[in-house]
Write a structure and sequence with these properties.
By secondary structure, this protein is α+β, with helices and mostly antiparallel strands. It folds into three domains: about 5-100, no CATH class; about 115-245, Jelly Rolls, CATH 2.60.120; about 255-325, Phage tail protein beta-alpha-beta fold (3-Layer(bab) Sandwich). About 30% of the residues lie in helices and about 30% in strands. α1 (about 10-25) runs parallel beside α5.
Length: about 325
């Protein structure tokens, strides 16, 4: 049976749906359930994503067109210029007419505020598409708060870890705040880990600017692909150092890769994948180093292997949590 999306009338229907979703996502507040419905719709058919991305691109381009001209396009009849039906319909009808008709935009050159919150449960990973075309991958037990404004795309990573693939936009920098650190980009791909003692930043592609949360604009460390840094609790940013982004972001494929990592760091990361936290008996145990690879959905295997790798033992406490102690 032929999918109706493949015919002319079906394409128009999908374009209408894309326009409605486009406008809805520009509202001052969009709840999590609405965005889940959008993601479901987006994944139902490749044409859904194609039409939505078309509108995103045309909306960005519309900033260069005078508002009066865009309104005039809305008023033109479809038969006036048959050579540009897609441009007239997509830009004028879908973006301008629908948005103005619902009263969601105060001006065509001023992107509306967008706010949302996304989180993951124990053992869950989540792929989040943002309305500007950027994408966020959330690891287990992670949470972000999103606030897009006219001149700034803001994200707060309140816990956990996330990989950001940022759509380039020099007019609206993309700013990620986590703990005492802040990362600013216009378009790139990077990972941020919000730890208990520090915030770690790893760059896979492009360039990012890392600062302490309250640092002056000219006080920052610049990172390029294959480089990393971290910000301590006081907001002090470490000098850039070489990293292996594939190892540090292996959580996206369900792996935990530790390369000379302290047991204290290992315990903190592993705790995100367990019902009860994994504890460290004392500082000496926490300073031991581990190099190994484990599956994030089987951290029991890690605990079982530890005593054969390092001079430690694992004991279960009364509350059901486990603790790594000296052997």
């Amino acid at each position: 049976m032929m999918d109706t999306r493949d015919c002319a009338c079906g394409q128009t229907t999908v374009r209408d749906e894309a326009a409605r979703w486009f406008v809805r996502l520009q509202e001052p507040a969009v709840d999590v359930e609405a965005y889940r419905q959008f993601e479901t719709w987006l994944g139902e058919h490749p044409q859904h994503r194609n039409e939505f991305e078309l509108l995103q691109g045309l909306w960005t381009a519309a900033d260069l067109v005078p508002a009066a001209r865009l309104k005039a396009l809305c008023e033109e009849t479809p038969t006036r210029n048959k050579r540009r039906p897609i441009m007239r319909y997509a830009v004028a009808a879908s973006v301008v007419a629908v948005a103005l008709g619902l009263g969601l935009f105060s001006g065509l050159n001023h992107p509306a505020t967008y706010t949302a919150e996304f989180s993951t449960a124990l053992g869950e990973r989540r792929h989040v598409a943002l309305p500007d075309g950027s994408v966020v991958d959330l690891d287990s037990r992670s949470r972000i708060q999103v606030r897009f404004e006219k001149n700034r795309r803001g994200i707060e990573l309140t816990e956990g870890e996330a990989m950001f693939s940022v759509e380039h936009d020099t007019r609206r920098p993309f700013v990620v705040e986590a703990g005492s650190g802040k990362v600013t980009v216009t378009g790139t791909r990077f990972d941020v880990l919000h730890g208990s003692a520090e915030t770690r930043v790893v760059v896979e592609q492009g360039t990012v600017k890392v600062q302490g949360h309250s640092a002056a604009d000219n006080d920052f460390v610049s990172l390029t692909a294959g480089m990393g840094s971290h910000v301590d609790a006081q907001g002090k940013v470490a000098a850039a150092y070489a990293v292996n982004p594939a190892e540090l972001t292996a959580w996206r494929s369900g792996k935990l890769v530790f390369n000379n990592a302290s047991l204290a760091d290992v315990a903190e990361q592993v705790s995100r994948y367990r019902e009860k936290p994994l504890r460290i008996g004392n500082a000496a145990v926490g300073n031991l180093r581990l190099t190994s690879v484990f599956k994030s959905d089987n951290t029991d295997a890690l605990l079982k292997a530890l005593p054969s790798i390092l001079p430690v033992a694992v004991r279960t406490l009364d509350d059901g949590s486990q603790e790594i102690i000296s052997k």
